[in-house]
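Two proteins follow. First one:
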Amino acid sequence: DNVSIENLVLIGNRSNFNVSAIRLNLANNSNIISNYIENFDVGILINGDISIDSNILVKGNYLLNNGYQTLRIDGSRNGNLCTSFVSNVNIADNYLSGNYHGINLFCTSNSVVENNIAVYSNISGFRIENSPYNFIRNNTFYKNRLQGMWIYSNSSNNNFSDNLILDNNQEKMPFTFDCWDPSNGLEIRYGVLNANPQKYPFLEKENGEYLFENYWCQFNGNEIELRNGVDNNIFTNNIIGDYDQTDENPIDLRIVYYT
């Protein structure tokens, strides 16, 4: 407990599997601040074999060209079920570029991810799995190869607000469309839009900014993917879409929802 790791320059060999730059297990009241971490298989890993209220700050770090577990918070699991949770972690003001994944929350609750930038990831800028009651706000997820945000497997009751999620899906997967809600219609600001490939929703432009109203859509080619039992997540004031465009109309939102 009461660990402070600050102002280190750590450069590794990514081919050394499961070697970490920084790893904390069952830690409380600790800080990981202003470190430079490059080319590790595991960049920053915070985990717990029993549920802990960790009170950990991960702030102002640079993570470049790291592997699958670049910045990962993880309790413990038995199969797909969490047996412990890490809670009360604040991940703020970090810059991630060229990693396999960006920020990952697994079996994490009551934590905050804010003011981070994750770009050029091989998979996603942000992934959350089996993690409820978290706040993800004011982040930028830009030009990641597949998803901007991957919301996966029993990650419910999270709050996503004021994030910028643009120009992901650099693989340019083909676009398909479907939308629904529990009342068999799609509620948007000016009425109900049923699933119709000719009437898919554009981002709405107000005061020079593209705004997003909350609804669920299934696309192939996506900025956000929601998969396997993710319910009651709240999305507000996020800017989501494809900004690289030549025509005046914004490109589709590209949100994927799987049951």
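Second one, unrelated to the first:
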Amino acid sequence: NFLKILVMIFLLQTKSLYASEDNLYKFLWLDPDKKVYVLQKKLFPKKMHVFFDIGGLYRFSNPFQTTFAPFGNIDFFFTEQLGISLLGGYYFNKDNNAFDGVKNKISQINQTATPNGGGTTVTTFKNLLPYLINFKYEVGGMVLFSPFYGKINTFNQIVYFDLYFGLGASWVAAQSNYDAIINDTAGDKTSQMKDVNFVAVNAKVGLRFYISKHVNFCVDYIHRGYMEKLITEDKIEKKGIYYESDIVAKFGISF
């Protein structure tokens, strides 16, 4: 009983103890900013901000051409989710192995001797090129919708990103060898390509990674559809839908 009384006296005389912040386990050691960010408080807000992006485009949908383009856009967001974009690019097209293969095959057919009484070669096809529609440049716009954002937690740092979608249209200046193929016109590629213009409908999905408050890096996938002339056996002029797919990598600044 005496021991119990001593313990009670000791407890009554002891002052309240408070743990300092240093004694708490630092669960936030993964975040160098030492802050907790919730959906209502973004580290990189987009509302009323402008983004300038410039980079390179690679087209992987053209079977006969290797296509690259310097490509850029200017984006402005009215809210955290909704914005508009102005875009443009200048295209460079180069013949690929498939193009050379078709050209060489048709050349071999033309060199085949056919019976004509004299044993001389009869040209079957004057045109040695497959059908091409090559973009030269484009300007256009999109409506942007950015519903998701998040962060990737690495061992050394946290990378913040936005996921966005775009839908819009662009005016395209291009070149086509449609007339040369229909009329079986001889000549090299440069002489056969003629200017054409059309409107393309564009849709994209992209990710914007924030390097710092004003610098970021973007990757976009853009899918396009447009109407142009078809090559038909009856040579009656008809139009059909063509599709192109592009990957764009860009660095950007924002303010």
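SUMMARY FIELD: Strands lie at 50-59, 65-77, 82-90, 92-95, 133-153, 158-176, 194-210, 215-229, 239-254. DSSP finds four helices and nine strands in the chain.
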